[in-house]
Amino acid sequence: MSAPADRSGRVEYPVASSLVHIGTDRKSAGESLDQSNSSSKGAKAKRVYVTRSRVVALSGQLHGQQKAILVDVGCLGVVSGRQVQRLHYGASAAGARLARKHLGQMVRWHVLTRLDRTIGGQRAGSAGLVYALGPAGQRLLYPNRRRFRPVWTPRTSYLRHALAVSELYVCLRELERSTSMELLAYESEPKCWRPYFGPGGARSILKPDALAVLGIDDYEDRYFIEADCSTEHRPHIVAKAKTYVRYWQSGREQVETGIFPYVLWVAPDEPRAAFLVDVLASLPPEHWQIFMVATADLSSRQMATGSGVPITKRRR
User: Fold this and answer.
1) Which terminus in the chain has less CB density within 10 A, N or C?
2) Roughly what angle, to the nearest 10 degrees, separates helices 81-88 and 93-108?
């Protein structure tokens, strides 16, 4: 196990990582959009086939903003129309109209798929629509894959959780424009998952919601993200925290990167954040140093400025 200084989540980096890593194909345990525990409505949709020549043509039709949207959706899995607008078009009415136009084109071209659920009710309008990769978008991003699965519309609870993970990415991108912080990588599941050997040599998988890598001045900060939506009970949170402790004690992450990331629980509000601090503090005190808790409205700012507070200090 590394010395305490090696677990700070911050280390000097000589070479910047790639800006965004696009996910790779991996089977998941009920945590992917293509799982059968999603809404059955999407299963009845007519399957769309995209020829190789059509993919080549689309690669020339997409302009810069649409290509950037495609990369973001591939990285995150799902995004809302409002999140796309904030990332690439700004808050103006003209930006909203252009975002609707470009997203509509991408849906018609089957680059993106519009899911059957919206966020925020009918008043949210087009900004509340949710998008995932369509068959053409999958082939554009992953040309070496041989088979592609149709996208399912997930349950509302999963969708709310997935969009919370996407929201943190959007907030960090917005802060990147106004601060010296650089978002070097943001990996969502399943790419951020970590296989390892637990006690007794048992094969295990750590399943964070995301991994964020930030460059701040001459340092690189790493965070495993747990997006909390106030749906998990104390025993589940404790069990997940113990999984992080076992992975930390395995030393695998430290061997590969030299440090162990902070584990940041992002809570929807301050009462839930206080509850998470209390739950995590039930672990042995020597484990507190790897955990952080922040509310959703402050988490990105604390990450961008390196001002997050570990459980160790909050408890004191």
Assistant:
1) C
2) 120
Q: How many CB atoms lie within 10 A of CB 63?
A: 10
Q: For residues 84 and 173, is the Cβ–Cβ distance under 8 A?
A: no
Q: Which ranges in the chain belong to alpha helices (H)?
A: 52-61, 64-76, 81-88, 93-108, 135-141, 156-178, 234-250, 252-257, 270-280, 296-305, 311-315
CATH architecture designation of domain 40-153: Orthogonal Bundle (1.10)
pLDDT tens for 115-148 read: 987 665 554 456 689 999 999 999 999 888 877 7
| Residue 91 CB contacts under 8 Å (≥ 6 apart), including other chains | 85
pLDDT at 46 over 80: no
User: Beta-carbon neighbour count of residue 138 at 10 Å?
Assistant: 23
Contact status, residue 89 vs residue 98, Cβ threshold 8 Å = yes
Boundaries of every domain in the chain? 4-19+158-315, 40-153
Q: Are 184 and 17 in contact (CB under 8 A)?
A: yes
pLDDT tier at 313, thresholds 50, 70, 90 = low
Q: In sequence order, what are the beta bridge partners of 130?
A: 80
Residue recorded with tokens 């295990």? 204
- CA–CA dist 163, 78 (Å, integer): 7
> Are the C-beta atoms of residues 116 and 106 closer than 8 Å to each other?
no
| Joined tokens for residue 7 | 């677990």
Q: What is the C-alpha to C-alpha distance for residues 7 and 289, in angstroms, rounded to an integer?
A: 8
Cα 4 from Cα 192, distance rounded (Å)? 23
Q: How many CA atoms lie within 13 A of 164 on its CB side?
A: 21
pTM of the model: 0.81
